[in-house]
Amino acid sequence: MRHQANAPQDAEQRRSIRPVVCYAVETLPKPDMALYEKARTTLKKIETIIVPAREARCFEVKAGQFFRISSIEGPQVGDLNLWNRHDLNERFFSGKTRALHATHVTTGHRLWSSLPALRPMATITHDTLGWYGFDQDGGGIHDVIGTRCDPYTNRLLKGNDYHHCCHSNLTRALADHRQLPLLEAEMHIHDVLNVFMCTGFTHDTHQYFMKASPVRPGDFIEFIAEIDLLGNLSACPGGDCGQSHSDDVAICHPLAIEIFEADPKSLENWAPQPKNAYSRTHGV
Prior knowledge:
By secondary structure, this protein is an alpha+beta fold. The protein has helices spanning 11-15, 33-40, 94-100, 151-158, 166-178, 182-186; strands at 44-51, 56-61, 66-71, 78-84, 87-91, 110-112, 120-127, 140-143, 193-201, 208-211, 220-225, 229-235, 255-261. β9 (193-201) and β10 (208-211) form a beta hairpin. The termini are far apart.
């Protein structure tokens, strides 16, 4: 049993202290959504990649191109990794994205890269599930709070090996795409954007939960690549994550990645995002 310390006399006063949002996001550089919306009207599809159920696939997107992750056959969530296509050391930073935006992201939010670059990698330009908001359980869509299902946690909790966890799917796909040794590729796999996944924290125990995703065929989340990207998407073995994951129990479906080009004239005032300008002297 967890030891419960006695509450001090001023406990309620301490609990009632006003919360302060950690980052002054009013000064955060904002994407030009009007420009992106204009460019969206000129999009032409140039490539489609199908991610099989319980597998992952890599894809490459040039800065200024758009890409969509789409539901095509049935409710399915996906785990997304992103890297600078020219430097795998610069990768998606889910924790900072969460701190700068929210636990769940949607249109107008950006996916930020790891230190020291700390710059937008992609901006969400359209989200057909943006209507969902937060439900009565506190659940929302497209979370940056979870990690990814992995075989290590599965071994810890269930005592067996399951090789189609998203972590393993992403590892195999990156190793194949970049022709890397499997264990080297694994070290580049990182915390994900849980695309289409409905998650939150329980009101009583504050535990991370998942519930069946509202995604249906035809739904998609769309991004503009702010830099040259290498992406990697796993179609999670949890299917819509309404019952289980890290096993073959859930009904799973493929996902589609569609890559689009806009008319160059529509983005003539746009440029890829530069790396963070901090000097890296750290006070020395």
